[in-house]
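Sample 1 of the test manifest.
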Amino acid sequence: MALSRKATCNSHGQDSSYFLGWEEYEKNPYDAVLNPKGIIQMGLAENQLSFDLLESWLSENPDAAGFKRNGESIFRELALFQDYHGLPAFKNAMVNFMSEIRGNKVNFDPNKLVLTAGATSANETLMFCLAEPGDAFLLPTPYYPGFDRDLKWRTGVEIVPIQCTSSNGFRITAPALEDAYELAQKRNLKVKGVLVTNPSNPLGITLTRQELNLLVKFIDKKGIHLISDEIYSGTVFNSRILSASWKFSRTENMLMIKSYWNRVHIEYSLSKDLGLPGFRVGCIYSNDPVVVAAATKMSSFGLVSSQTQYLLSAMLSNKKFARSYIVENQKRLRTVHAMLVRGLKSTGISCLESNAGLFCWVDMRHLLSSNTFEAEMDLWKKIVYEVGLNISPGSSCHCDEPGWFRVCFANMSEETLELAIQRIKLFVNRHHCN
Amino acid sequence: VSFDLLEEYLEKHSEATNCDSRNSGFRENALFQDYHGLLSFRKAMASFMEQIRGGRATFDPERVVITAGAPPANELLTFILANPGDALLIPTPYYPGFDRDLRWRTGVNIVPIHCDSSNNFEITPQALEAAYNEAESKNIKVKGVLITNPSNPLGATIKRAILEQILEFVTRKNIHLISDEIYSGSSFSPEEFVSIAEILEAQDYKNSERVHIVYSLSKDLGLPGFRVGTIYSYNDKVVTTARRMSSFTLISSQTQHLLASMLSDKEFTKEYININRSRLRKRYEMIVDGLKEAGIECLKGNAGLFCWMNLKPLLEKPTKEHEVELWKLIMYEVKLNISPGSSCHCS
């Protein structure tokens, strides 16, 4: 009585070192009081910096969590609301929030927005809508390890890497795009599009105007799609933000007559910017009404709880609150980011210069015993077990060069971050002595 | 019919909605995205499912997998148990949503187990064999049987003897059994609903690794907007795989917290289940009696939120086209939106 092929293969990606590090952390988690020698979790891209802002809003607005509107109970209305078009007030609040993040230089149409149970669901749904089993999407490396599961597992879609290297700060180049496309062809895979994460996970950098131009030219020439995963858009703490959505909307009138306008799709989620991964709030934004229609129907398999839609619609439609939250959150991110970069620099470790995200892309190549991935794994194990830090090795993100690690900084107190930096200092000093 | 009971509960228990001024636990809850689901929620669901079955079956919280409603639960199981091109056998008439939920993205087929009014639409061993053979003749591999118990659209529970026959059939063919029990709390008299879980427990869980139960709070608690579904599987590999796949369709932790609080209050749930049942029975009797006065018979039902109404006497000719004509008449002239049997694949 066998199970399906999907159930028995390894495409869930659970065996990757990315997840194994988590398991080690779970066995021996750091706690300032109960387990001060435990492993500090620096492999989880969570934003825990600004909960106080959300909590104080909730205290002042108890109706939102209490199923009330203007003091009147709307429990039944919400309990029964399962329309896959989503709560209109919530979609309006989402597009306003997305707009606010982009400095109000862009307007989004709520009718082009599809709600999904988190970005995980949004990513998979777009694959189902845009590609057949056996087709491929091109992704710049390094990329978020979860994509291997989210984009490929149940959809049967393949990922072909666009190699990016430290030689130019991991920027996407025209030759790299062409090489990836050719590699797909050699493997007999039909390329359906390019998926970029902007700001990038794990790099923490926003795409430059040149990169965006390159991408747009490329998808236009090849007649394929462009997906821009912008779930970290609210974490840009250095305002050089350029997003696919911003660029395209800026020249909207001109671009709307461009053939590729309907092939550009954006994903967003509240898991990173608001720090609410548990609430499962994601969305797809597409200019193609056929994609919007199909994705809307597919969202039946992962709708957002109406209880949560209501709470967040109340919160985010308060423009003053939304604006002040974004500004304060960015400020706090800038502070802890600087702390980590400074701390690492003092031990002789440099990071890729970044302006966004909840992590740094750290260069530990000089600490490798050899320029190999085996050496990277050895170093990683030392850092997990001896230094007591769960960080993510670049190989788990499909990086081509050994020695890079993603280190998260927004999911702990400043004291814990300081302790983590101290532990690295000690390790590096010992390392040098050896 | 029972929202007042839920609203009353919420008024008395503000901690369930993180409403109190301290907002304690808000951030932990907001961060909780573990695909195992909140333990307190799984415990509460297991206990609620036990209460619905009058304690005649026990459920282990470690086997509860969370999904955002029943459609993804059904889809997930289909992805896990069958390959594209394989088939699930489903008794007719069945819930129209299955055509999308089980087939769309999975590429799996539905082959009908034909049931008809000659024996109150009960599933027979002959019908099971016939469906299996039909699939075989088309070179389609059958991976399992999916039953809805209590049945949608029949509004009737499946008898114990028939459940045992179905279990014997799937064991003999070495295939799976999915029991969609989302209306289990809506059976009017608790004794008449027999869950597959009871049968398995009675036989010491022999052959149980092929059985999987789907449940949801959309019907029994009237909360379809909250997207609360579960898969309960007796197969360890299925539980592990389903859990990983549930990443695509988790329940909002805010909602898990609310329901963990509500459903772990056993006094509340006991009262809710009883009152809800009696209100549903009253409604059922009202509609059936009213229709009877108009000379319209219904299938004898004992569960669900609907009755299976027999309008055959009103058809000019017993054809699908005439059924559609009658349906249009009822829609536009009588101004009632009801579901024609053909949409449920009634033969």
